Amino acid sequence: MESTRTDTGNSDTIALFPLKSVLFPKGRLPLQIFEQRYLNLVTQCLRSNSGFGVCLLREGEEVMRPGTRQQVHRIGMLARIVDWDQLPNGLLGITVEGERKFEVEDCHYEDSQLLMARVRYSDTDYAGEPPLEVDESQEALVDLVEQLVSHPVINKLGMNIAYHDLRELGWRLSELVPLTLERKQALLELNDPYQRIRDIEELLHRLMDES
Question: Fewer CB near the terminus (10 Å): N or C of the chain?
Fold first, then answer.
């Protein structure tokens, strides 16, 4: 398995890592690897400097049992390994970073039980997009992200955050605000960064009203 083409609009075939997590561009996610199919995948990715797809599970569990299947949401994120180490429990730990949003066109299982997918990369939501200016009315959101990132668990991930880029502001809030996975997935599926910020502001107002 090798994936090196991430140009906008291109189709590619990549392995999927179905998770109960939603990843956004430049976001980081720590993973423990113990299933053989994923140990092989990580080894191949490290050797070839390639990535794999992170998709939110629609049905099934992260650890697949005999006779079961996993169904994923069609919008996911190409992820690349940025750090790895052996954990105290003896398992392989990796940290991945989101790179580019994609849509799953079709998928199938290989004999190795890896879920493979033909994906088409989106022309939005990718690391390296031109920044969008944050206006004064959104400075409170910048402050909120800074507070969320100051938490030791999040700070340990070492994310390089452009706080005054509206796109990244939306990505980080979508990841870090305590929302349901389905809400986070809905925010990922949006292509308009301004709409994402508006939806997040509305969700934050609701959370404040409920508290």
Answer: C
